[in-house]
Design a protein that fits this description.
Layout lengths: L5 H17 L1 H20 L16
Helix pairs in contact: 1-2
Length: 59
């Protein structure tokens, strides 16, 4: 199971709020998709191919 930090929860709410101002249904759908993806990653952490390049956080 994947746990979200308080900061992550706040970020998700901010994203939802910005979208919901224009389209609440789309905002709800986006959060549902994010939650499904996070659940899938939490249940299958080694799913997919390994990324071997640098991330945006590496120099």
């Amino acid at each position: 199971m994947l746990r979200k930090s308080e900061a992550a929860i706040n970020d998700l709410y901010e994203v939802w709020l910005r979208i919901a101002i224009e389209n609440r249904k789309a905002a709800d759908k986006l959060l549902d998709n994010i939650e499904k993806t996070l659940f899938l990653i939490g249940e299958n952490p080694f799913m997919g191919r390994e990324y071997v390049g640098k991330t945006q956080f590496e120099n």
